[in-house]
Amino acid sequence: MNQTHRQRTATDPSPHGASGTFPEGFLWGTAFAANQVEGGFDQGGKGLSQADVIPFRKTGDYVDITSLMKATDAQIAEAIATPGAAGYPKRSASDFYNRWEGDVELFAELGMKALRMSIAWSRIFPNGDDAAPNEEGLLFYERLFTRLRERGIEPVVTMSHYEMPLHLVTEYGGWSNRAVVGFFETYAKTILTRYRGLVRYWLTFNEINTTLIEPYTGGGIIEREPQDGVDPRQAGYQALHHQFVASALATKAAREIAPDAQVGCMLARMAHYPATSAPADIVRAQWDNNMNLFHTDVQVRGRYSGTVRRFWRDTGIHVAMEPGDEALLAANTVDFISFSYYMSLVSSVSPELYGATGGNLFSTIKNPHLQTTEWGWHLDPEGLRYVLNDLWDRYQVPLFIVENGLGATDVLEGTGADRAVHDEYRIDYFRQHLQQVREAIEDGVDLLGYTSWGGLDIVSASTSQMTKRYGVIYVDLDDEGAGSGDRIRKDSFHWYRELIASNGATLEALPATGA
């Protein structure tokens, strides 16, 4: 663990509030990514990002969404040749780039204590390898962070959230190329310097483990025919090592440039349960969990785990490391762990014996004890308590839930000023998950905050659709980008506002309507 993180002592105040409540200073808020909310893809000197070339892809239920989050050379070339935003929803998204001032006022009305967001790398360095940053892009975020602070909202900022400059993808091969580490370090130092004093919580890479599951989205690796005799996972693991090195360099830079700031890693965390009590299934679930957590092992413990090193040996994967890499990782561990939680998974040595639920990113096994969303994701509030305790017991560093929410097809009712969305299902989702969060805090977990995904309705990362809605604020746009763009408070907005105002004390008392 990094020596700069101050440990609690027996004389410190408890990290928890009174029994049954949330800690004093708990960071309640919402979260989104620049590529899913900003739009303005051709404004303010921004360059194309890897997300700007992913088209809208309509899907049915229980689709394997990892099959959607890919890009070939031909698809990218077609996208580059296509002007405007038609067919590419992330180019316009929710138009936060042009509407941010009004949106921040809505966030203040909600009573948010934190906004977890990201900087679009290609808004700062349009090509990624530019000699100098884009001042207009730097100024945009400076104004945004300043306004957030004026409204009492803490920016929690991700440096890279599925939006690396497209030039680094097409010309360098994404994160599989070691040269990208240097470009990222320059970018990180630039934003750390510019926003010193404005941003106190930094995350380096969003859901860093997705580089192995979705190599294009997580690592900027274009889908191509595999080379004979080369494990197709080779490029992903090499890219991931480069990201670990880049994260350590960014953490090191933060300690030098902004020593009062805290730096966290970010993991897509989904607990793996064994399908049966058979020892083989239990060992398989343990292995799956360890393969998920080796990412945090590197960033919190400062070293690769034995589990992943054995996997490399068994599969013939060779990860090239430069002299000094391992020492760099060991010396620059993070201050806290942030993570997303949407679902739990099921592991078995014989997965073919079980029914499929393709919406779950890392598993194909349906858990018979759990319901699923309309996109096939397991609903498992108790799994969040399990995950919090598991991470706390393993690492003993503060935790931060920076993504949790329900994607659903909301219905806008009424007209004019009477428009409303009655999303009691989302309120119920929040209530059940936050009850388990409160239980974990009572268990002794040190939790910094909770930022629900995604505040505003945003364009989906996987399908690029707007109709898979997560926000407590409805955005009047459809999958083709048509609509007024108006912001409409859902019932969940009113419910969450009262919950934040009470610091969670009214979790059970508030009515399901949020009225």
TrEMBL record:
Positions of transmembrane segments: none
Gene Ontology biological process terms, A to Z: carbohydrate catabolic process
GO molecular function: beta-glucosidase activity
Region Disordered, annotated ranges: 1-20
Keywords: Glycosidase, Hydrolase
Residue numbers annotated as active site: E403
UniProt protein name: Glycoside hydrolase family 1 protein
Organism annotation: Pseudoclavibacter terrae
